[in-house]
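Reposting from the mailing list since nobody answered there.

I have sequence plus structure tokens for a pair of proteins and want to know whether others read the tokens the same way I do. The first protein:
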Amino acid sequence: MGMIEIGPQDELKKLYHKPANRKIKLCSIIAISITLALLIAILIWMNQLSNLYLSILKGFVGLFAIIFVVLYGVLEYRVNREFIDERGR
């Protein structure tokens, strides 16, 4: 059996916990939380809301989902770029 390499995981955790990256992570968590809250609201009040309001809510759900994907992609890019830069030195 081989040994498990622990070093890169510790380095990646340090990069994820930098202040700027923590802010991006927090913003992405907030965006996905709003998305889930709106989806639950749509499920609960589907019969009471008009088609216009349902369409508006679905639009906001899509918007916040896109915001989440963009923020998470930015976070992954920043962390991996810094990790690769440090490993190349």
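The second protein, same order (residues first, tokens after):
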Amino acid sequence: MSDRAPETEETPSGSSRRMAFAQQELRLISALVLLLGIGLFLALPFVLSIGSVVFLPLTTAIILTIILSPLADKLSEWGLPNVLASLLALLSFFAVLMLALALILQPAAALFDSVPAMARQVGERFAELRDEFAWLAMMDEQLSVLMGQSGTREVVLASPSMIEQLAFATPSVLLETLLTFLMTFFMIEARIRMRRHLLFDRASHGTSIKAARVMREVQDRVAAYILTVAWINAGVGVIVALGAWMLGVEAPVMWGGLAMLLNFLPYIGPLLMTALLTLFGIGTAETLVLGFIPAAAYLGLHTVESNVITPSILGARFTMNPVMILIALSYFSWVWGVFGALLSVPILLMLTAFFDHVGRPNLIGFVFGEPLFASNLLALGLDDDQSGNGA
């Protein structure tokens, strides 16, 4: 007869208690992670805004590196040294940027002399409209008298002139531009070492493969999106320039360049372009109806481009929620102004590609008791089951 006590099997009630405790612990950790994420989201704008001299060039350099790395790789395949290939890729982007600015600034300088005459004509057109709707002003005055409201004084605060603002802003802009191009060059030049570091300096082979996939997906998605949108916007610029030339609008090349650049800003860019064409049309046309024709033609072109051409070319891979685009646009515009608006969509693409691999948080489900990262936990459980069955 043996003295060993028989091993007691685990009761279902004990297993369920441990499972419930593990779920509560996981939910507590998820809640802490969610609170930290919300706090970081709220505090990050102030940090990025205060340190914009560092963070804005760094973010821009990362996005330019993602865009220009394929070109540098192609030049390296042709036998050029890595340093020379990186420099040529950066110089190619700089040349394209300078050409686009020259297409806009040179005609704009020639058109600047006619701005006072256009301003006078716009004032005359609005004066005509005001005379036609003078009865509304009379009704407003009568209502003010009946309600006993008196005239209010306007206090005008003196603000710096445009020349003074440019004088203060120029050194900072030059410094940030120089930092951006220097960071971009060194990042492009170090891209091969960074890939090797991600692949070979990881503790496990699976981690290396996952890091390589994330890096490739981010680079492919952002570069493909920006290059495709650039070609589409270039086509829009050519059509606008041809349309402005056919309508007899001055400086058609400038309007085409403006349409191309502003089309990189979702929603806001086309609205701004429409406003500029409306003011210019009213200021140069003989009648109000003729003045609205350029803006109406551009609105028709933008409607077809944004709802038919761009979705059919980009496809479902680059489809993003318009609400998320507007949130990113307002968020980074608040932090970095116009440059933040230009960088908002590439940053959103990078974050989307990253979370597609790491796992997107289940915020709505978490409120109703579901795990915060349900897909990742499910995949982890499946991996554990497979490893347990194979053991």
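Reply #1 (J.P.):
I read it the same way you do. The chain has 15 helices and no strands.
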